[in-house]
Amino acid sequence: MKKIMLIIMAFFVMIPMGHPGGAEAKDWYFKPAKNHHPATTEPEYAALLKKYDGIYIGDTSKKDIYLTFDNGYEAGYTAKILDTLKKERVPATFFITGHYITDQPELVKRMIGEGHNIGNHSWGHPDLSRISDEKYRKELSKLKEAYTRLTGSRTMPYLRPPRGTFSERSLKLAREEGYVSVFWSAAYKDWIRDQKKGEDYAYNQIMRRVHPGAIVLLHTVSPDNADALPRVIRDLKKQGYRFSSLDDLMAEKMLPEKIF
Length: 260
Known about the structure:
The protein is an alpha/beta fold. The chain has a single domain (47-259), classed as TIM Barrel. Helices cover 43% and strands 13% of the residues. The chain is built from ten helices and nine strands. The strands form three sheets. Strands 2, 3, 4, 8 and 9 form a five-stranded parallel β-sheet that branches. Helix 3 links the parallel strand 2 and strand 3 (92-96). The termini are far apart.
């Protein structure tokens, strides 16, 4: 009997536990700093992003800001956000899901037509750290194929993992599939639709977290964000900030420093 128990115990020790590939899932988060100093994250997270060419922050010596929006579904405020971006001549990246591209094709085409980037937020918004490699690739390819059919464009270099959950395996897969994993260094709790707190609240939450080189995450389901965005952009411009695209950021990373 003792021998049988030892065999059973050895069997379970040999079985990889946890997520596919034995990878440990991690929830992205940043550590805000005071007085508009750059946010930081866990050294382990920063090291993993560096290893797999992911990003969460730009050059903190420059007053550049990178606006990104997560579009899981449409709540009626994206058009207003696009109006503001167009009026203020500000670029952004919109991370969309399969539901969004099938439900709001005209808005997606408008984003492209007005010069914004479209990023991959997966087809069905799963936890990419928990699914198999095959399902992972399918989630990304299905979204990109639908995007290409709709817009004719094959360009989709950026990926934002749903809910910010990731693992070393998922970051590695993203790079293998040709994506830059994009996280963030400025955000607030803005995705709960029944917790509307008003334009001033959104304005203050965004402004207190902004810093040089910030990659800002906002959700388009928030009417507060849509209302506050014009004032946010105008006031940050007055403070000397410049709104740039993720393409600008990646170009700076790839080209010799002296060019910039």
